[in-house]
Amino acid sequence: MNSNTNAMKVKNSTILIIMILTMSVQLAFGQHEQQYSQFMYNKLVFNPAYAGSTDELTATASYRNQWMGFEGAPVNMGVSVDGSLREDKVGLGLNVFRRTIGIYDNWTMDGIYAYKLKVGENSTLSAGLQASLRYYGANFADDRLRGSQDLSIDPSIPQEQVSDLAANFGFGLYFSTPKFYAGLSVPRLLASEIDFLDREIPLSLESRHAFFMTGFNVRLNSIWEWTPQGLLKYVNNAPLGVEVYNGFTVLERYTVGLGYRSGGLSASLGESIDVLFGFQLTRQLFMAFTYDILLSPLRNHSSGSIEAVVRYSFIREDDRPQQIINPRYF
């Protein structure tokens, strides 16, 4: 029993090390932004123009444990806050996020400004800007980092904890009506250097990511609402990422949904199928939980991924008679 358990741990650790080393080699060209199954409740992470879209001060906390069962598997956690000023024409926002994977520990802070322009009786077009600062850290002295030979004999591998800072800025556009939204954004425009060692020619750079998201809402009857949504993710030298979500809201209080994420190996059907449950506990408090069922070969080594979102809206006194909180968050 113990020998089988130890063998499984060694196997999982070996797979994880291979994944980490592969990610390290491909930092210059691969995707390294946070991944969320509940992208519809984390719009501010993807698009700065979303700031202030609900016309209320809103705080969102999120947690994602990806590929459970792997030692050192990716974990994302963070908080977003946004609200509006100047008769709801200006939106301000703040993101603070942490992501860990193996020996890596990354922090991101975004400051966001958006200007909202009415383009119809019930439609708004917002333009947003954000400035960000990102901390990259790696602890090469971590005892989880193992190899077939002593790592200290390779002079290219640091023997201590190293770190780097990268500043960046980005922009986004966001169009919304009570029943539809669409957004386009590039949150980080600069290819900032993120090498841990001083080099004349940098090997590791932040990649420019582009996101397009859209969704609409249809009231089927007095009880049910249907809300399909989608997210496209593009970065140079990586496959186009596609995420789709099909959600239903019951009595404007309970949300159930099914999502799909592309990816995985070329022979697989995609990366995951995502099952979501959401609850509007009060007019101000909303919670949602997601479980990702893996489709890729990783399903043989992991029990899947879990994600949770908690969102609280500070309702203004002058809005209480007519303001309705809805888990769509268009």
Question: What can you tell me about this protein's structure?
Answer:
By secondary structure, the protein is mostly beta strands. The chain has a single domain, classed as monomeric porin ompg (Porin, Beta Barrel), CATH 2.40.160. The chain has helices at 2-25, 43-46; strands at 57-65, 75-85, 90-101, 104-118, 124-139, 161-177, 180-186, 209-216, 218-219, 224-235, 241-250, 254-261, 272-280, 285-294, 305-314.
The CATH topology name reads: Porin
- Which geometry do the CA atoms define? globular
Q: What is Rg?
A: 21 Å
CATH architecture: Beta Barrel
| CATH class identity | Mainly Beta
* Biggest pleated-sheet summary: 14 strands, antiparallel, barrel
Brief summary:
The protein is mostly beta strands and about 325 residues long.
Features:
2 helices; 15 strands; 14-stranded antiparallel barrel; 8% helix; mainly beta; Porin; 330 residues
How are the SSEs placed, and which strands pair?
Layout: H1 2-25, H2 43-46, E1 57-65, E2 75-85, E3 90-101, E4 104-118, E5 124-139, E6 161-177, E7 180-186, E8 209-216, E9 218-219, E10 224-235, E11 241-250, E12 254-261, E13 272-280, E14 285-294, E15 305-314
Antiparallel strand pairs: 1-2, 1-15, 2-3, 3-4, 4-5, 5-6, 6-7, 7-8, 8-10, 9-10, 10-11, 11-12, 12-13, 13-14, 14-15
